[in-house]
């Protein structure tokens, strides 16, 4: 029974007491006995009329629900964290797992998005509290303090939290072996997790950074100014592609759900539509495809390979970069360069046992088809490889998304378009989506097994090698994109510094 109904019933009937179940947060109830002492019928009726006016005025009208406000405004205002997994801006514009997930949600609601980005969750929480933004996203794990003020959406991803350090010191395998402070950002889930562990580990030293965000602290680990920090597993997998010296000590939290934050204002409209949205994303496979786009290729980490690649970017890539840029055309030159590294480690004289040669490892027939006279000529080989990759991209059906098209084309470059088509047909037969790379890559390895390939048009293929081939290229490509971003940021900072110095010169002269 609702409280207003109890009051009316008490006033009308004149009963001295009624049982009333008071709803509390998170589906708990408290049963209370409330007492009514109004005896006069006339007095009770006057109270009924008065209270009805008050209670009706206090009830939020359906037209004022949060969801309707958003739809009427036509804009979803989103507080979002700048970090490699949530939101970043490269030469192609804004991107990130959370960014794309929010875009899907905005399309689901048929509204525009207004992003309010920040590096610090502590800056965004007040914006959610004062309703400057409608939701807050950014790989947010539940914490006790946030739960007291805000409401969590249904979870959409599970992660773990790990203590990390820089290679070169002895690896601690438990909290008892930590020999220096652990530095974490203020008001983060890392901060609250460590505080909750103090009772079990009273000697643990925690340094709280009020200014640095978790990714800046990871950079401090790399430059040696911080000994230990805590990192989320999905963010760590991305960051280690360009900070390979970051090592995992041990896990302090397993299977932690990530959610979006909403205002806890007793308005269920936005929460209810998020249940439907995440349900449809799961059922359609779109959420899995999005996870694969950003994290599917970073699960395996090879320290030696990553170090060698970073060294080659500095020492070898500059010799060939102009040709990658020149011949890439409408292909991202960094993708072409990443593919070339996977093929030959940027060695123009590379040769395989099967007879493919050069920096893009072309077969003799392919080289002849695209007018490459000498496969050992790096420029010609890069041009031929770029033309061949573009031809494969053009063969991919239009219905395949722009995000997945490069991976299908690269797989075809490795094992042939016919085998990729076989894998797509096999994927469909096994209940998957032949137009999604996340589904097809799981079936490609089956082309090694006779019971599957004997029913295909093109027969046996090393499909597992094609999957590894594409995954490696995606990692190299992401690293090249990150390096470009860092260079752009550094140039922007340098330009702003020069502008400040130039503007200050006249004032100094006076």
Task: Please explain how this structure is put together.
By secondary structure, the protein is an alpha/beta fold. The strands form 4 sheets. Strands 3, 6, 7, 8, 9, 12 and 13 form a 7-stranded mixed β-sheet that branches. α14 packs across α21 and α18 crosses α19. The longest helix is centred in the last third of the chain and has 47 residues. The radius of gyration is 29 Å and the shape is globular.
Key words describing this protein structure:
single chain, 510 residues, alpha/beta, seven-stranded mixed β-sheet, two-stranded antiparallel ribbon, 13 strands, disordered N terminus
Catalogue the unreliable spans. 1-39, 42-62
Number of helices: 21
> Ends: how far apart?
78 Å
Instruction: Work out the strand percent.
Output: 15-25%
Q: How many strand elements? A: 13
Q: How can the largest sheet be summarized?
A: 7 strands, mixed
Tell me the helix content: 40-55%
* Structural class label: alpha/beta
**What would the average pLDDT be, to the nearest integer?**
85
What oligomeric state is this?
A: single chain
> Globular, elongated, flat, extended or rod-shaped: what is the shape?
globular
Radius of gyration of CA atoms, rounded to a whole number: 29 Å
Brief write-up:
This protein is α/β, with parallel strands linked by helices and 510 residues long. Helices cover 51% and strands 16% of the residues.
Topology, pairings included?
Blueprint: H1 3-13, E1 17-23, E2 29-35, H2 41-58, H3 66-73, E3 75-81, E4 88-90, E5 93-95, H4 97-109, E6 112-118, H5 121-129, E7 135-140, H6 144-149, E8 150-152, E9 157-166, E10 182-185, H7 189-197, E11 206-209, H8 214-223, E12 229-232, H9 233-239, E13 246-263, H10 269-284, H11 286-295, H12 303-315, H13 317-328, H14 333-344, H15 364-369, H16 378-395, H17 405-415, H18 417-429, H19 437-443, H20 450-453, H21 463-509
Parallel strand pairs: 3-6, 3-7, 10-11
Antiparallel strand pairs: 1-2, 4-5, 7-13, 8-13, 9-12, 9-13
Helix pairs in contact: 1-2, 13-14, 13-16, 14-21, 16-17, 17-18, 17-21, 18-19
